[in-house]
Amino acid sequence: MVLFKREKITPAVSRIRSTPDVCMYLVEGNERAALIDTGNGVGDLKGYVEELLMGKPYDVIVTHGHVDHASGADQFDRVYMSELDYELSLSHCTVEHRKSSFSYWREMFPGTMPEFEEEDFIPVRTRPYLPLSDGQEFDLGGITLRMIHTPGHTQGIMVVLDVEERIAFFGDACGVQVLMLAQETTTIEMYQKSLKRLRSFADQYDRVLRNHGTCESPCSVLDDNIEVCEKILTGTDDAVPASFEDVKCIRAMETDPKSRKRVDGKEGNILYLPEKIR
Fold it and tell me: Across the chain, where does the E strand assignment appear?
């Protein structure tokens, strides 16, 4: 049985934690609600969300097409995602891919993740998504969610801005270990341009929420990662050999092996492939 855990962030925003190390966000306005991301696609997330909402209508916003964000999408009817990540979600969210990812997690972090039954897995969504685009807004009644296209981690990834509460849901777009490791990622050069554009919205939020780990960062994480991009581009990063899910890569800034935090005390960091710098 897959269990979900709710944490209240503000009166309108709840974090819904699932396993392994992934969360979703539920934002409730006066008239509607929005679920941001659908997790790994195990367990009855829809039933859990609808129990919390008690009949309030809602939409689902998938920030990008990766396995730990889009795999539960098939449970829901009204699901929005950027067209740039449609094909990615079809390959990345298969049950087989999820099982492989879970096996890696169990090996790396023994005892932190249960075994799942076949009936726990939500099928990959093959039905069409509703289009999600830069600047698109969702009026929930007293709360407005605005989309900010921030390509990097994937081509279509969105940051969601809660305008009234001044919260930016960075998700995987910018954080403590941004993964720039796959075919769907942009180059570091293009990613830095995206982050600089995201910085143009910095006067519109006071809080940054993410989907993994501590799930929150200081707003300075954005400037940290812009600086990390510059170090990579100029060859002045620490360039520590690393791996993630058996992909050999480079960790831009050195981290403490136990805490996994940067040794220089800053927040942002990037794992990248040397062939995708420019």
Answer: 5-8, 13-18, 22-28, 33-36, 58-61, 79-81, 130-131, 137-139, 144-149, 158-162, 167-169, 178-180, 207-209, 216-217, 240-244, 247-251, 270-272
